[in-house]
Amino acid sequence: MTQRADQIAQREAEAFLRGQQPAAIAAVAWHTRAEQGLSAAEQTQLQQWLDADPAHAAAFGRLQDGLRAVRALPPERTAHLRRAGPSRQRTRATLRQRISTTLALRPAAVAFCCVTLLAVGAGWKLWQTLPTYSASYSVERGQRRDITLPDGSQLTLDTSTRVEVALYRDHREVRLAQGQAMFNVARDPARPFTVQAGPARVTVLGTRFAVRCQACGEDRAQADVEVEEGHVRVEAQRRSTELHGGEAIQVYAAGGLGTVAAIQPGSVAPWRKGLIRFTSTPLAEAIREFERYAPVRLLIRDPEVAAMRIGGSYQANNPAAFAQVLPHILPVRLVQRADGTTEVIRKK
Fold first, then answer.
1. Which residues touch 289 (CB under 8 Å, ≥6 apart)?
2. Are 15 and 35 contained in the same domain?
3. Same domain, 99 and 190
4. What would the pLDDT profile of 179-205 be if each residue is shown by its tens digit?
5. Are residues 71 and 175 located together in one domain of the fold?
6. What is the mean pLDDT of the chain?
């Protein structure tokens, strides 16, 4: 009976914490760690977390304000909170009553309740699963960004790219929400590094690889994985394969894995050098790729022209030069329109 009550109390505490905003929960975890003392490296990680997103600093500030407000309450109004340690005699109704009473004191007491649960153990298990570092990074169109994570891993984000990073005690996760990125992962066998990109899940221990996600967050999402050096495992819909340096694979929307293809390691992520590479790519798709970097103002209305295949490498920041090349490699011609756009039509 007591074990059952304790399990219910644990679930109540975890449900309460999961109902809070991720930034607020992370702020609680950082505050709890800070109360126990941070090393110089951990202090740096805390500052990086605060600087990564204004929401992080705001959540941490609200937590500190809430704690100050609760600590300013008369002792008789917080005595029952100090007695809220975990007990196997606690019932579900008792835990709910204590949480409700805390919330009734004032809204700022929410933070105190979270810290109390974490510190006394009812939420300890959940706290152990919280990331030690989390951040979101994004790059605007036409820009690139280099990022060094607290574990030493390095990320290079291409234009129009967004990633979400979470480093845990036993593993590391990155979600590629949009665009493409190059990863140089710091080796740490005790903490596998995983990248989720649409239907693909890539797990590594130490390597350099690139991941691209098209239409991420949509049913038609597709991912491309290229390995420059090292070793990764690519998973999708209960299927998996392994890639080594100089290999690449496509992962399709339905979770299907393409054929492992050989590539030149030096050709991985050409966008790092300002290049876009096409391999038998439909012309319409190639133009959409240029649009990720800058306005192109190329128009295609003929489906047959849109489906024409193109290959080669081109300067990402020079769509005009790309347009001028088209009549020399495809049976098309360029027609200037009054609105300033250029239409690509079939050559007669």
1. 276, 278, 281
2. yes
3. no
4. 999 999 998 988 999 999 988 999 986
5. no
6. 80
| For residues 219-233, average pLDDT | 88
Q: Are residues 137 and 122 in the same domain?
A: no
Q: What is the mean pLDDT of residues 41-45?
A: 80
Residues 139 and 103 placed together within one structural domain of the fold: no
Q: Which of 37-41, 127-131, 186-190, 225-229 shows the lowest mean pLDDT across its residues?
A: 127-131
Distances (CA, A) of 341 to 155, 163, 298, 317, 318: 36, 33, 6, 17, 16
Q: Which of 61, 94, 129 is the last residue of a domain?
A: 129
Check whether 109 has a pLDDT greater than 60: no
Tell whether 125 and 138 lie within a shared domain: no
Chain Cα centroid distance, residue 203:
14
Stronger pLDDT, 53 or 199, i.e. the higher one: 199
Q: Token pair for residue 6?
A: 């304790």
Range of the domain at 320: 274-346
- pLDDT band at residue 106 using 50, 70 and 90 as cut-offs: very low
Task: Determine the Cα–Cα distance for residues 56 and 42; give it in Å rounded to an integer.
Answer: 16
Q: What is the pTM of this model?
A: 0.64
Measured CA distances, 263 to 84, 104, 259, 324, 332 (Å)? 60, 62, 12, 28, 30
Same domain, residue pair 239 and 174: yes
Residue type for position 94:
T
State how far Cα 9 lies from the chain centre: 32
